[in-house]
UniProtKB/TrEMBL annotation:
GO molecular function, one term: glycosyltransferase activity
Xref: PANTHER family: GLYCOSYLTRANSFERASE FAMILY 92 PROTEIN (PTHR21461:SF69)
Gene Ontology CC: one annotated term: cytoplasm
Name this protein carries in UniProt: Glycosyltransferase family 92 protein
Classification via InterPro entries: Glyco_transf_92
The entry's keywords: Glycosyltransferase, Membrane, Transferase, Transmembrane, Transmembrane helix
Primary subcellular site in the record, as a coarse category: membrane
Organism annotation: Mytilus edulis
Family listed: Belongs to the glycosyltransferase 92 family.
This enzyme's EC code(s): 2.4.1.-
Localization annotation: Membrane
Length: 364
């Protein structure tokens, strides 16, 4: 059951096959897998319902078409096995070059360290690209924020305010994936990454489906050069088409980021999907992690998530408050909009999620 909570306001200034293991020594690159029809970004172990073990691995990335795939599983003692990859989720918005998609592969051993994905019928050594598998753990009583993507221009002082406000509100972990970004904003992200509260991933270059030359002059494969070459003013002159925004492909890029976030944060009690220009504000300024745990969950014990009211605070209307924070200086706002809601979800209780919607599991 979905519940819209009126006392919270979101403001914007955002076949299972038994595997037979054999000896094999792969060449390993812990980066991306690109087969032409499938571009795998991450491989994350999936916890079972009672949090006792990981019973599958979820591969998140971009797909073209509806090909069948197999997973090649590699163990720490250099054995390998092939299992069928089940197409789990595929985002269906628009007509992009490559769709956001997820595959799931069942596992029976605990020591799977790396994984590859190949077309059904292809030999296991048809690709030398192998992803490292990460295994999330249970994070009871913890709240995380998924801010899907950081790109273009972000003012450092506003980023600092956003992070510090959310830390005060009880957020324990942040995740974002980065495209080219002005260097001072990237320094802020690096600071919070070094503090241990931000997990930051780098989008591939070139972006999946694009020609190698469409790379914004970033010659290093993880695009780090982009974060040292561009100032705020220089980045403002770069057209949004570089980030595939606005376009159907851009929405699928965001969905890949969201899928990756939710799988990485699956062990958390709550995950909020908000952008860097969005703040979750309780009408009485209560810490929202405590409010979720102590007020909302006792009232709605079978909820899969909570939908937030959504208002715009318009800075062009001028300063309407006091202090030096953007939250206190700009307080005039529109009435809550009845569309484009954002959500705080309980990852273990949802079947699917998009930027503005969630699909709960049966019985929730």
């Amino acid at each position: 059951m979905r519940n819209r909570i009126k006392t919270i306001t979101l403001t914007l200034a955002l076949l299972v096959t038994l595997p037979l293991f054999c000896n094999y020594s792969p060449i390993i690159f812990d980066y991306y897998i690109h087969t032409g029809r499938m571009y795998a970004y991450s491989a994350i172990g999936k916890l079972n319902g009672n949090w006792t073990k990981h019973d599958s691995i979820v591969i998140t990335g971009w797909c073209r078409g509806y090909d069948l795939f197999n997973c090649i599983l590699f163990t720490s003692d250099q054995q390998h096995a092939r299992v069928k990859a089940k197409r789990w989720r595929q985002y269906s918005n628009g007509w992009p070059k490559m769709y956001a998609c997820q595959f799931i592969c069942k596992i029976t051993k605990k020591n799977i360290t790396h994984i590859s994905i190949v077309k059904d019928g292809a030999p296991h050594n048809s690709t030398l690209q192998v992803l490292k598998v990460t295994y999330p753990t249970r994070q009871q009583d913890k709240l995380a924020v998924c801010s899907k993507m950081a790109y273009g221009t972000e003012k450092p002082i506003k980023l600092i305010e956003w992070f510090e406000y959310n830390l005060l509100m009880g957020v324990d972990k942040f995740i974002t994936l980065v495209q080219p970004l002005n260097r001072d904003a990237f320094k802020v992200l690096k600071y919070y990454q070094q503090k241990g509260v931000l997990e930051m991933g780098i989008f591939p270059a070139p972006l999946p489906g694009e020609a190698p030359t469409d790379n914004l002059d970033c010659k290093i494969k993880d695009r780090k050069e982009c974060f040292t070459n561009y100032s705020y003013d220089e980045m403002k002159d770069i057209p949004w088409t570089v980030f595939r925004r606005p376009s159907p492909q851009g929405f699928h890029d965001q969905q890949v980021a969201l899928y990756h976030c939710i799988e990485t944060l699956q062990g958390y009690d709550f995950v909020a999907n908000v952008d860097f220009d969005e703040f979750i504000v309780h009408s009485q300024f209560k810490q929202f992690k405590d409010y979720l745990k102590n007020n909302l969950m006792p009232r709605y014990p079978t909820a899969a998530g909570f939908t937030l009211n959504h208002s715009y605070f318009i800075t062009d209307w001028g300063v309407s408050g006091d202090g030096f924070l953007q939250m206190s200086r700009f307080v005039k706002r529109l009435d809550p909009r009845l569309l484009n809601y954002k959500n705080i979800v309980i990852p273990s209780r949802i079947d699917d999620i998009t930027t503005h919607n969630l699909e709960e599991k049966t019985g929730i």
